[in-house]
What we know:
Four copies of one chain form a homotetramer.
Chain A: E1 8-12, H1 18-23, E2 33-37, H2 40-48, E3 54-61, E4 65-66, H3 68-75, E5 81-89, E6 93-96, E7 107-110, H4 112-117, H5 119-125, E8 130-133, H6 137-145, E9 153-156, H7 158-164, E10 167-170, E11 180-187, E12 199-206, H8 212-223, E13 229-236, E14 244-251, H9 257-269, E15 274-280, H10 295-309
Parallel strand pairs in A: 1-2, 1-3, 7-8, 7-9
Antiparallel strand pairs in A: 3-4, 3-11, 5-11, 6-9, 6-10, 12-14, 12-15, 13-14
Helix pairs in contact in A: 8-9
Amino acid sequence: xxxxxxxxxxxxxxxxxxxxxxxxxxxxxxxxxxxxxxxxxxxxxxxxxxxxxxxxxxxxxxxxxxxxxxxxxxxxxxxxxxxxxxxxxxxxxxxxxxxxxxxxxxxxxxxxxxxxxxxxxxxxxxxxxxxxxxxxxxxxxxxxxxxxxxxxxxxxxxxxxxxxxxxxxxxxxxxxxxxxxxxxxxxxxxxxxxxxxxxxxxxxxxxxxxxxxxxxxxxxxxxxxxxxxxxxxxxxxxxxxxxxxxxxxxxxxxxxxxxxxxxxxxxxxxxxxxxxxxxxxxxxxxxxxxxxxxxxxxxxxxxxxxxxxxxx
Amino acid sequence: xxxxxxxxxxxxxxxxxxxxxxxxxxxxxxxxxxxxxxxxxxxxxxxxxxxxxxxxxxxxxxxxxxxxxxxxxxxxxxxxxxxxxxxxxxxxxxxxxxxxxxxxxxxxxxxxxxxxxxxxxxxxxxxxxxxxxxxxxxxxxxxxxxxxxxxxxxxxxxxxxxxxxxxxxxxxxxxxxxxxxxxxxxxxxxxxxxxxxxxxxxxxxxxxxxxxxxxxxxxxxxxxxxxxxxxxxxxxxxxxxxxxxxxxxxxxxxxxxxxxxxxxxxxxxxxxxxxxxxxxxxxxxxxxxxxxxxxxxxxxxxxxxxxxxxxx
Amino acid sequence: xxxxxxxxxxxxxxxxxxxxxxxxxxxxxxxxxxxxxxxxxxxxxxxxxxxxxxxxxxxxxxxxxxxxxxxxxxxxxxxxxxxxxxxxxxxxxxxxxxxxxxxxxxxxxxxxxxxxxxxxxxxxxxxxxxxxxxxxxxxxxxxxxxxxxxxxxxxxxxxxxxxxxxxxxxxxxxxxxxxxxxxxxxxxxxxxxxxxxxxxxxxxxxxxxxxxxxxxxxxxxxxxxxxxxxxxxxxxxxxxxxxxxxxxxxxxxxxxxxxxxxxxxxxxxxxxxxxxxxxxxxxxxxxxxxxxxxxxxxxxxxxxxxxxxxxx
Amino acid sequence: xxxxxxxxxxxxxxxxxxxxxxxxxxxxxxxxxxxxxxxxxxxxxxxxxxxxxxxxxxxxxxxxxxxxxxxxxxxxxxxxxxxxxxxxxxxxxxxxxxxxxxxxxxxxxxxxxxxxxxxxxxxxxxxxxxxxxxxxxxxxxxxxxxxxxxxxxxxxxxxxxxxxxxxxxxxxxxxxxxxxxxxxxxxxxxxxxxxxxxxxxxxxxxxxxxxxxxxxxxxxxxxxxxxxxxxxxxxxxxxxxxxxxxxxxxxxxxxxxxxxxxxxxxxxxxxxxxxxxxxxxxxxxxxxxxxxxxxxxxxxxxxxxxxxxxxx
Lengths: 312, 312, 312, 312
């Protein structure tokens, strides 16, 4: 608890982002110390330095895919552990200062991802809109409210538009109406969250060499134990073209025998493997487990081998 | 040739980007009509509409990975074909207007990717630098030269700094000194580039369902024919969390029997597969081909089966 | 038809064996010329030399497994083709000359396989029975009828016991009451039997080297095309310990696209592969075929690739 | 030691067979009690009943393949353990009573396997030889020496010909001059033979269902752990056509981590698996072991997982 009576959390700021909304879903976070960070990397570094107990950052967006900054920052450096996940629906509004009509809007500020997700609405409703890049949707809204930046409107969350008292010229303007982002709460190494039966395990796996056989060998560690993967993403290591690591989410908890066995198999072929945590799924969906990959099957096999080694 | 005497190319602009540098490596492009586009999508749409003959866009960066906008834009819409690739080393400079000393720099404009790649140098050389997002490195430089934007320096390519007459306060400031980006020249469907023996084939493959078995089945189409993959990237389809397609580069040309056979196998299990082209590798590196996956082995097997079907 | 008006068949004799019973199930065989052979090898050689049109030999017994002599003889030498199969239930009787009571039986002659299959009954009904090896069950019965060999009873088929007028001291004395043997009719190379939708294809596949990976690569040629194997047997090549070939029966006809594709894949990795025929299953059981391995899927994939190669 | 001062062994008799020659290679067996048995099954049953300490039986012949009687007898019934193997070169002679010239030989007695292995020599040297089946090569020789059976010569081992004082009309008459048979010494369950680094592990694995996928899943348990198979044979269960089990020899000892892990994986998917022993190879050949399947890799993976489960 970092020496204080209340827990402390960093998050990808500024205030009013979807990330803060995710953090507020954590029990007790409403009364906790909440520290906005300008980048995912600095939010995570605050955990590593001990400045905060944990950090809330986005990991996967249903439209844009994995959040590269998070995937990359968590994959290297001092070890961290994901302890919780939250799902937040993503909806955008076109916000403007009081008195601005939709017909007046020429220049629109927002983050590049939000701009990409609202192109159809903007093309249909704002003649020749000019895009002004901003470092976040909340920053665009804040600059707009402050009269800075020389633009007429911002694409942002309803939350931040409301907080800043901006007028809403268009509601739910994203191309995909049920977009959702998954956020993770990241702490330091320590006791694992308890197994719930509907868990997720996140791993970072260096891809040994660039041929399909090597990737198949890695995937086989999961497939052979009946462990499903709900997310698999490649990320460049930054060293040279074609040098990748894989970021994957596997169904199950490391205390499930089939997951533990898969992890040991992965460690043998790729010892640089990094375990990023086992934690409850936000959607509470349990995987189907076949008999031969159940804990019972693992226990029975261990006992059978024991009798052989004991000479019985 | 689009009705004109000279070929015409769109590219991800503005002028002075690394993309234009890639385009200029294409024989004859120096005398061609070159049309900068504001986004990858619009560069590609100019090909689809027939406004230009082909478009040069980035596809893969050794530091940032696949270029999402390209991967996504080429994966849907009217079919396109990659006909050529170019490799361009990526080096950044910190550019300022004449008279600005390094010690004066507080606010630095650039594209988000460039900012991410120069953080170590900036943290070490510019006290408390503030990041000003820009839509491209060239745009940042141009605004700086024009005295617009309220910032003191820009991170951009040496090419554009030189063209604009900006002073260089720091050379080769990227964290990784041998960063390189791969660019592709994209045309419409038509005759395939000739097989050279050192070719690449690019595909978009919908991932049927989210389990490792399905992905392994896809990878096995390559592995079973000894076809190496030099790049494999997942991209969300944008429909819902966990719904992905794969963008892959396979060694070889579709006129190689083993590649053709792999493509047919892929089509059977994933008929939504999209072929994006077979083209010569910029590095001219030929793959090792085992005897049992050679064209000779395919021909011999076809002939053998023919004798059986003929009742001989 | 070998120059004669009626077809001619060799079979594993002597007369009265189960093999002759199988041959008599072939339409028209009752009026054909039937030539008993003393060994499977000589029955097959009669086909190779042109002395007969085809040979009936056993290939698989539900109790004893593959018939080694057949598997080995058909795997080498001039090529042969299986054109038909028959299933014959195997039942044994204990036969003796008139006047012999069960209590008088001390020495029993039969073929080693029959002896093995009737041990339980013999142990229960004949005190201290002594085994007298014979080259076939029919030969044992014939010697018994002729008063030769110095034994009291023979284990043979009901058919031969009846023909020779022997008394039956025990009926259906096999340990397994529903034993069945599969027989094959083997001709020379020629036109394939027509595809019926419920076919079998028999192959001989040299195992390249003695590791599981090589065998898996072979099996994957079937598995990847959804081709089921109803029989898989290893046989030594006779060269050295651990040097084996595989004899397999695959569901389907070589004119099925998935089977043809699997055979081509096998030929590439193991060019010494031998095709022994596609023929209708005696039990008329059709395999389930998944969409992606149907003839339609193969045709669609071929057409799709054709459009790419044509530059469309 | 069965209550006696000297060990006792059963073996597939009669005296003078190659099996007795194999038994005599076991240290101390020359002074042990040696009990010939008429069948492999009865030799093994003598171990099960405690009548002897162990039994020597043939398991694999380089010409004829696996010895079915051994594979089948050891696969069912009370559990047994292979504790040792011996390799014996197989050479045959044509033996006759003194005074018989080669030109006089018409009828030759021997075991069916021996007859098959000497066909080329016999066809070349004895005009129109007639085959007289015998239950073993030694029995044929013994009957010949006793003047029984009405035949002129026997095909048998040089050992038994010498013991019986028979004349040798042809030496080394087998078609394959370097034929060898592998024999196994089988005891009851108990302490495992020590790991030597050049070991073999023998298993009986029921094949779950008759499709290549199931067999591949079984083979993958070995392949995924880098465990080579030096012998793999199918045997019918005797229940119905197409119902098989597999008899395999794997390189390595159950105390090797990779072998133990493979066995546990097999037990999970096929709990009816039977372990038949780990024992030193007669040829002392050690397998190549890749780093990721070494004991060290297993230990490192176990320790790594331990730190995760401990919350470190």
